[in-house]
Amino acid sequence: MELLFTLRKLEPLEKLLPFADGVIAGKHFTTGYHLSLEEMRQAARFCKTFHKKFYIAMDDFICEDEKMLMYDYLDFIDSIDADGIFFHDLGVYNAAKSYGMLSKLIYDGKTVLCNSFDSAFFLEKGIDSVVFSRELTLEEVKGIVHNLPGRVDMQIFGHLRMSYSKRNFLTNYFRQIGRDYDFKGKETLTLVEEQREYKMPIVEDEDGTYIYTDYIFEMFSEIAELKDGLKRGIVDTLFIEDDALIAQVLRDYKRVSSSNAGFIRDSFLHNHPGNYSSGYLYQKTNIVKE
Amino acid sequence: MNKIELLAPAKDLEKAKIAIMYGADAVYVGGKFYSLRSRASNFSLEDLKELSQFAKRYGAKVFVTVNIVFHDDDYQGIREYLRYLDKIGIDAVIISSLALIPEVKKEAPHIECHISTQLSSLNSSAVRTLKEFGADRIVLGREASMAQIEQIAKKVSVPLEVFIHGGMCSNYSGRCVLSNRMTLRDANRGGCAHSCRWKYHLYDGDREISEKDCLLSMSSKDLRASAYVERMIRAGIASLKIEGRMKSEYYIGQVVKTYRKMIDEIYEKGSLSFDRLQYYDLELSKAENRPADDGFLSGDCDNTKHLYGVNGAGVTHDYVGFIHDFDPRRNIAFVEVKNVFARGDELEVFGPKIDNRRFIAEVMFDEDYEPVELANRPTQLLMVRMPFAAEKGDMIRKAAKR
User: Which residue has better confidence, A58 or B176?
Assistant: First the structure.
């Protein structure tokens, strides 16, 4: 399993890269990255120098008006010889095909790729791999990994995205209450449902609004038996400012095995207390209203 | 050029028949399995067969939703299901699992694959990808503007379907699992709790920045795209889709009939005047619905297109009765009571062949021929004398006192 982390800004690259096999970075058609194209070029070069992988996150939807930007961006991606592109909009498939880049594509299914059959369908279309959804139980994850060994990726750490809208929820809300509030670029805003207590991070950018889980997903105890079957494991750093914590996460995912998993998890949680969860790994959602 | 299709939803057999009788060219329905909208009654295999036969008599089509986000276990029995749908003459399945495309082609060769709005197809490149994958029709994402829809339609050859009316997800379809986190109900497998319509406090760090008397909500107004129907026709869109598999027969009847007449008038006259558009909008407002606007069709969705604190209906008329039969010798309609009305009320009848005819309910009897002053027992069957003829399937409403 390749161990990747999302590079949200350039600064921690040098510090964190030694603990990982590569990074994911982005500028257009994604969210939460604060890199210029020039910084992405530098980061790609830096990764290549150290024989690490450099991937692009291009995982938002693309409107008809934005197609020109999509092609320009693919030109840029081609020019820096990125190792792969995480995509979600199926328009990228068609466009990447014309660039001869199909084998670099990784379909990030976000919330809608929950089975082996759809995963296999995409792989048969000539792409490199798929990232399956985060809303799966451990048994379901094992099933997909078993069915498609070495062809699937998974987010293994970080806040999980829960919703993605084209609507500008924050802009519209402040307009509604008649208040000027500068939230652009801020990653400190949270939502709390009126009957509940947990705080769910919310960000808005030019592409829309995104809401994430209040907790940080972790699977130190489970990763050992999946490592051989997963192609890539992704540590998402969004909303996590502590680089030392990320370094520890990467170190621990690298060294974790079936014999030390319990110890690693316990010591991580002891040294880095916080709101962690195994997400849906042990929590099956109801299919219908009960 | 083929006339644009009017596609209506139905949660059960009765409503599907209403939709077809009131002018839908096609209906889309869910089976007991594999379909979102778990609270819709949904169709048994026998119901689907009966609907298929009924639709054929009217020259209408039937599409079946197979649009949950599948987990591995969910595929059990899908091949048999597809073969059955093919056998009974279903015209298309609406799918979000692309792995089903080759299965449909193999197991159900007479059935078309329509790609659900769950795929949020918003550009011509994505549409081409789906066509290459074997799709026969693409339902565009509800985030596309009218201008973008026109651009996409110009560039692709595969038929496009566009939502024109009804509720909208405030997030991209399928990309919201708020319900999973907050209620453990799987939003993508029929369990959506509509958490987007709830109220939320907003914090920056530890400081609350929301107004306590106006909390943040993601709830969107419903879609009403009547003003865009003409442009959709000119753009060559194949199908106009009404949302609402949870809606009543009254809603289905009224909305379908209104769009049916509007489409026919555009084809007949070449365009629609402002006055006529206003008339149709007024007709649409007689159906039960939440406040509505044109969504992303006009471009942006600003705060005026959200619902903050308001969730009520803007309905102008109450649906009070369904006509099960009519005796032309006595001018008596056999009416199932749906809502309260009284002797002396002015009522309005509409139906597949009747347009908003009004009368005063002067003579009403129950099944024992006892006179009735107040009809307030839902499902009770009454005999109501009318000054004009009606037909089975017509509906009765009265102006709402709000």
Answer: A58
**Residue B35 reports pLDDT greater than 90:** no
Distance between B105 CA and the closest CA of chain A, angstroms:
14
pTM here is 0.93
- Pairs of residues, one from chain A and one from chain B, whose beta carbons lie less than 8 Å apart: 235
Which of A118, A169, A193 is the closest to B70 by Cβ? A118
- Per the CB < 8 Å rule, is B97 touching A117? yes
The structure tokens listed for A84 are: 């792969």
Shortest Cα distance, chain A CAs vs residue B202, angstroms: 5
Domain that holds residue A30: 2-156+230-242
pLDDT tops 70 at residue B371: yes
Tokens 């829309």 -> residue: A208
Model confidence band, residue B192 (pLDDT cutoffs 50, 70, 90): confident
For residue A116, what are the CA distances in angstroms to A104, A141, B159, B215, B342? Answer: 20, 9, 29, 41, 59
What element of type H or E holds B52? helix B45-58
Q: How many domains does chain A have?
A: 1
Contact between A79 and A99 under an 8 Å Cβ cutoff? The reply is no
Angle among Cα B13, A287, A290 to the nearest 5 degrees reads: 80
Q: Is A57 among the domain residues?
A: yes
Residues 6+ away with beta carbon under 8 Å from B100: B66, B78, B82, B93, B113
As beta bridge partners, residue B43 has B31
Tens digit of each residue's pLDDT (9 = 90 or more) over B294-307: 999 999 899 999 98
Instruction: Specify which residues B61 forms β-bridges with.
Output: B26
CA A244 to chain centre: 19
Classify residue A110: in a domain, yes or no.
Answer: yes
CB contact under 8 A, B200 and A193: yes
Q: Which of B72, B180, B203 sits opposite A189 (nearest CB)?
A: B203
- Domains in chain B (CATH in brackets) are 5-168+220-298 (3.20.20.70), 317-399 (2.40.30.10)
Residue A127, domain CATH = 3.20.20.70
ipTM reported for the complex surpasses 0.90: yes
Q: For residue range A163-215, what is the model confidence (pLDDT) as tens digits?
A: 999 999 999 999 999 999 999 889 999 999 988 889 999 999 999 999 999 99
CB atoms B152 and A64 under 8 Å: yes
* Positions in chain A whose pLDDT score sits under 70: 286-290
What pLDDT sits at residue A290? 44
In this predicted structure, the answer to whether residue B334 has a pLDDT above a threshold of 80 is yes
Output phi, psi for B374, to 5 deg. Answer: -130, 120
pLDDT for B184 beyond 90: no
Residue B40 has a pLDDT of 58
Residue A215 at interface with chain B, using a CB cutoff of 8 Å: no
CB B381 within 8 Å of CB B6? no
Distance in angstroms (rounded) separating the CA atoms of residues A67 and A63: 7
Q: What six digits make up the tokens of B27?
A: 């209906």
Interface subset of A 61-90, CB within 8 angstroms of B = 61-67, 70, 89-90
The one-letter amino acid code at B77 reads G
